Every structure is written in C-alpha cells, then in structure tokens.
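Retry 2 of 3 after timeout on previous attempt. Resubmitting structure tokens to design endpoint.
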C-alpha cells in the first residue's frame, strides 16, 4: 500500500513539475516582452487597428491612421534589454515606406493572467504627434482624413500610431498643396508636416476671365475716362462724337499669397488699350482722328478660398 501511495505521489509531483516547466516555457516564449511588442506591430501590419489600440493601451483608435500603401512589413525584434528602473527596452526592426526603420519601445510587467502567465504593457504609449503648419489655408488632408487646423481651443496636432507613414496634402478646386510625408518611427516625438498652399490653374483662369470681362466693360464706356477703370486719356481739343476703346493686349495675371496668409493678391500687368476719337481743333476748327495707346496695370484681391467661394475685388 505504501509503495502504491509513493508511486502515486511521485506521479503527482511529476505532473506538477511538468506543468511548472510548461508554464515556465510559455512565459519564456509566448508571454515575453518582445512578443508583446511583436503582436502590436503585427496588428499594424494587418491593419487591425482595434487590436493595435488595445495592445497600445489606448481607449480608442486614433483618428488618423497609417498610410495603407506604405504599411510596415516584416516586423522583427532585434534586441531586448532591461533599464535601471526595471523596464524592458525592446528594439524592433521593420520595413516601411520602401526603407528599413527601427523603433525602441519600453514595456513593463502587467498583472499576471491566472496569476501565473506573464503579461506586458507599454510603459510609454507607442504614439507620436503630427503637428500641422499650413500656410495659405486652414485645412489639411492626411491619409484620406481632412481636418481643420484652426478649430478654436484645439492645437493643430494629432496623436498617431508608431510606426507609420503619414502623408499630408491639400486639394481643392481653387488652391492646393503638394504632398509632404513623414515616416513616424520614434515614440513620443513631434513630427511637423508643413504645407504651403498655391492657387490652382482653375483659379488663375477664373480670375483672368473676370479681369478680361471687367476690362471689356471698361472699354465699352464711350468716355475718355472710363469710370472705375485702370486707364483713360486726355484731349486738349474738343471731342466730336464718342471715344472708341479697344483692348490690344490683355494683362498677364498673377496671384500671390497676401500678407494675411488667407487671401490672394492679384497683379495684372502689361495691359495695353487703344483709344480712337474724333476731335475738332480749337485753333483752326479742323477735324482729325486721334489714336492713342495706353499701357496700364491692375491690382485686386481674391478672398474666400478658405470656404471654396472665391470672390475677386479690384482696388
């Protein structure tokens, strides 16, 4: 009887020892600090942003997500060390945006699952901040999301996943900004995205058409000094009949960003008109036709591009 009990006890001890060894092995393989980081990176790789946010300790998924065409691939843990504070420092390498990048993550031990399996959480949330600076507008498009950079009480900054590629631009019918991008690979760092907006050809064409229409209306006035117009002529003799104005050269129109950084200064230069008028000489009463070419320039301003409703006014 004692022999049977002894054998049973040894069997139980063997099972317990095997169980302890299996728990130890699982903690050394599955539930390691590096594997915790790798799971987070793999969630980003598969674009499972809900899982990535949960692993990162975030209460919600960030509004701006990594650019899908430049998602990270092949994440690997290349180095693990321990800091003086006891935190685990995990260095990961991956491919993103056509190049190889590395990111250093800091994790700490969490509450064990079932009191035996290790858990790890990020001691430093794996996010960074994108800061927007847009000159000439207050809008920006980042990875398909458009936001206003001048919302009262809100800084033009967004918290985003690390790592990720974030591409900013602006496209509207009237203004646009070429794309700028940032490969965000460092945790808790600010990444500025600076855009300078320029007018589109469509807006230049619209302003040019408006200028030409305005000048044609000026030329239709049968007076020597068309009202509200950039040209006119003076005659010392008596005018017989009405003057006839013709636009010989329409001016070249250019738009530049105004000093207020939200409107556009219009300069129309090198315009030429011709006036023909019959006059009677005050000296001998003879009739003659006077033809005069007049060079002129024109200035104005375009406002309203911020709300896609441009309005042109002349000085």
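Retry 2 succeeded. Sequence:
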């Amino acid at each position: 009887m004692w022999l049977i009990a002894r054998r049973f006890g040894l069997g139980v001890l063997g099972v317990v020892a095997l169980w302890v060894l299996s728990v130890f092995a699982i903690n050394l393989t599955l539930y390691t600090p590096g594997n915790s980081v790798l799971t987070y990176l793999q969630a980003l790789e598969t674009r499972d942003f809900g899982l990535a946010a949960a692993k990162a300790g975030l209460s919600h998924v960030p509004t701006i997500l990594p650019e899908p065409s430049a998602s990270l691939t092949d994440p690997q843990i290349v180095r693990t060390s321990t800091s003086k504070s006891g935190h685990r420092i995990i260095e990961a390498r991956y491919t993103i945006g056509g190049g190889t990048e590395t990111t250093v993550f800091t994790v700490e031990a969490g509450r064990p699952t079932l009191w035996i399996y290790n858990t790890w959480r990020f001691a430093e949330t794996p996010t960074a901040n994108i800061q927007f600076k847009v000159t000439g507008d207050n809008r920006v498009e980042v990875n398909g999301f458009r936001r206003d950079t001048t919302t009262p009480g809100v800084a033009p900054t967004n918290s985003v996943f690390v790592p990720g590629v974030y591409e900013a631009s602006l496209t509207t019918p009237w203004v646009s900004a070429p794309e700028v991008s940032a490969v965000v690979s460092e945790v808790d760092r600010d990444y500025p995205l600076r855009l300078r907006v320029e007018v589109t050809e469509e807006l230049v064409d619209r302003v040019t058409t408006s200028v030409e229409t305005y000048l044609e209306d000026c030329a239709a006035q049968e007076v020597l000094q068309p009202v509200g117009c950039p040209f006119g002529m003076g005659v010392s003799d008596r005018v017989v009949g009405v003057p006839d104005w013709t636009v010989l050269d329409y001016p070249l129109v250019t738009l530049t960003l105004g000093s207020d950084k939200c409107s556009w200064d219009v300069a129309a230069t090198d315009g030429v008109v011709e006036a023909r008028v019959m006059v009677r000489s005050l000296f001998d009463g003879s009739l003659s036709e006077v033809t005069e070419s007049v060079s002129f320039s024109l200035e104005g301003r375009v406002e309203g591009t911020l709300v896609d409703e441009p309005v042109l006014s002349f000085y």
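Attempt log closed. Residues 128-197 form a domain with the Immunoglobulin-like fold (CATH 2.60.40).
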